[in-house]
Amino acid sequence: MKYVEVDVDALSGTLTALNNSKCQLCVVRADTVRPLNLPKLGEAKLKGISDHLVLADIVRTRVRLTTGRELSILLV
Fold this sequence. Notes:
The protein is built from one helix and five strands. By secondary structure, the protein is mainly β. Strands 1, 2, 3, 4 and 5 form a five-stranded antiparallel β-sheet that branches. The longest helix is centred in the middle third of the chain and has 4 residues, at 30-33.
């Protein structure tokens, strides 16, 4: 697994993220972005390796690799 350092708009400090180039949505813990009070765009049902479904809010923010490349992504 490869990890990268990213900056999320309006959050102080750098976060470590899993670099998964084949993902359809980026997933971040809700408590990480909750202080930003981002508007909810919808909900997603996430399923990992188990059969357990997790409901997650979909929000939008800007994320930058610490190398400066900017991405506009949906976070779940």
